[in-house]
Write a structure and sequence with these properties.
With about 280 residues, this protein is α+β, with helices and mostly antiparallel strands. It has three domains: about 15-110, 2-Layer Sandwich (Beta-Lactamase); about 115-160, no CATH class; about 170-185 and about 195-280, Four Helix Bundle (Hemerythrin (Met), subunit A). The protein has helices at about 30-35, 40, 55-65, 115-130, 135-150, 155-160, 170, 175-195, 210-215, 225-250, 255-280, and strands spanning about 15-20, 25, 70-80, 85-95, 100-110. A five-stranded antiparallel β-sheet has the order 2-1-5-4-3. Strand 3 (about 70-80) and strand 4 (about 85-95) form a beta hairpin. The longest helix has 28 residues, at about 255-280.
């Protein structure tokens, strides 16, 4: 009890709730990490995994943003069924139907030790403050913390996500974690559509959000780094392999052949962001 559960960087925790916060879906990784059977968690409020070390002010920001119909990133300490805990960076977004929010979906990945240590201090201060102050006052204190450091909330999230003190203005604006998450979801969504027999279109590498960002940055000085050329090639390969996966899956290829393609996509994706991290690191 009260031991940290370490999450593999290749794992993606996924859950979905209705507009009142009741859980309607969890993936297998959620169940494995949180220690709940699916049948005992569906229908429960999502705060069943809320850790007491989490300040209410953070959830006020989260829900205020979601209720406005906007997505949000948040660093969260969750509590497993047995009292152990695990840290995540959550990307939460509203699902709209005819312009109205009908549910919320959350994708969660692990965070590094530097971020955990910094957040422990910030969150502990807010939790202690909330013992004698309202949530609104705690929220104001958090905003003051950001203002004193000349940071917006988004910049605060991005700075910690980068894990390095990047000073190059162009590289500091690259949201590594967002693009990494996008590529994981890119693969997951294509696999899901293939399984359901739905129409699948794999865009060329130049046309996804990350590809457009690479094109925008191609004339910057840091792109002369040898790892830049590597990440561009790996990115093209990921899209080519996923096109090949769709074609072969729809042509009735063997499962081991399809799995081999997906394994290659996973290793190439890792290389993309390893190379990009190297470029960013050298641009300090």
């Amino acid at each position: 009890m009260n031991n940290e559960i370490l999450i593999n960087n290749q794992q993606m925790i996924v859950s979905q709730t209705d507009i009142k916060g009741k859980i309607t879906y969890v993936n297998d990784i959620f169940c494995s990490i949180a220690g709940y059977h699916r049948e005992e968690i569906i229908g429960k409020n999502h705060n069943i995994i809320r850790h007491p070390d989490m300040p209410k002010a953070v959830f006020k920001l989260l829900w205020d943003t979601l209720h406005a119909g906007k997505p949000i990133y948040a660093f969260v300490k969750n509590m497993a069924k047995n009292g152990d805990y695990y840290w995540v960076k959550a990307y939460v977004k509203p699902i709209l139907n005819n312009g109205f929010v009908e549910s919320y979906v959350s994708y969660r990945k692990p965070i590094d030790d530097f971020t955990k240590e910094l957040l422990n201090g910030i969150y502990a201060t807010l939790v202690e403050y909330e013992k004698n102050h309202t949530v609104e006052e705690s929220f104001s204190l958090f905003l003051k913390y950001l203002k004193d450091r000349n940071l917006s909330y988004e910049q605060f999230i991005n700075r910690l996500s980068t894990k390095k003190n990047v000073t190059n203005v162009d590289t500091s604006n690259i949201d590594l974690d967002k693009f990494h998450t996008d590529h994981i979801l890119f693969k997951i969504n294509i696999i899901d559509k293939v399984k359901r027999g739905a129409k699948v279109e794999v865009v060329d590498s130049c046309c996804c959000a990350f590809g457009k960002e690479l094109e925008r940055l191609k004339d910057k000085s840091f792109t002369s780094h040898p790892d830049w050329a590597k990440l561009v090639q790996y990115h093209k390969a990921v899209h080519a392999h996923m096109k090949d996966y769709v074609f072969k899956a729809q042509s009735g290829a063997r499962q081991d052949e399809l799995q081999s393609l997906l394994s290659t996509v996973e290793s190439d994706t890792i290389e993309i962001f390893k190379s990009l991290n190297n470029v960013v690191d050298q641009s300090k």
